[in-house]
Every structure is written in C-alpha cells, then in structure tokens.
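Homework help board

Subject: predicted structure for assignment chain

Our instructor gave us this sequence and asked us to write out the predicted structure in token form, then describe one feature. I got the tokens but I'm not sure how to describe them. Can anyone check?
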Amino acid sequence: MPGFRGLNVSAADGDRWELALNLLETGDAPVRLGSITLCRDVGAPNADGHIHIEFPCLHDPDRITPEAGAHDLDSARSVVQAASAADHRFALLLHRFGFIYEYVHDYGMGGVLLATAREDGSLTWQHPGGDSRG
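My token output:
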C-alpha cells in the first residue's frame, strides 16, 4: 500500500520484531510482515481491540472468485502460522486480543474491504464480486 505509515519487519525475530510486538500490544501503529499488515484496533470509537490481519487482493474485485479468496487467505494464514511458530509471544497476543483476517483491495488512493475471516478460515464476503451466491 502506498504511503504505509507503520513498521516493516522481514522476520519474526530481532530488534524490529521486538518493536513490532510492542506496537501490536499497544495498538500504536501497524506492522507489515511479508504480504500481510497487522494492526490492533484500539483508537476508533467502535474499536474492537482485536488484531486485524489485512491480506491483499491483487485481482480486480469485481472478478474475484471464492477460490482465489480462499487461496489468498491460505497464504496469509501461512505467514501468521510461521510467525506464531517462530515466537510464542506473537501467538499469545493473537490469543489474548483475538484476531480477524481482512481481505482488502488497495486501489492506490485507498482500499475496499472485500471479505473477513475468523479463526476457522471461512470467508464472509462484504463485496459481491467474491460471493458466488450473489
């Protein structure tokens, strides 16, 4: 996403990762880890306190299929699982605050939420392009 104002980390270790864990706990800034962006929703009036895990839709949202969405979600879940395996503190943060996956299409000047997924991995479509039920 252009104009990202957060912390980029390349792996779940080292000094930058220590800072990333702190930012996720406090909700002070987003963290980008590989293809996903994590942030804890604490400042908005309707903040839920969960860790939001954004993963990108690189397709035209009007042409996205449920299969493509599921594939992209699996990729995001792999990043989260690897980070959880590398550092149990990250896994504890996810457990403590709860988390939600958000499938987002970035169109350059902003983004649109296409779908969300909870821990079970099933996508709930917000945008009609990915929902074959229409």
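Reply (TA_rk): Your tokens look well-formed. For the description, you could write something like this. The helical segments are 14-26, 66-86, 88-97. That's the kind of observation they're looking for.
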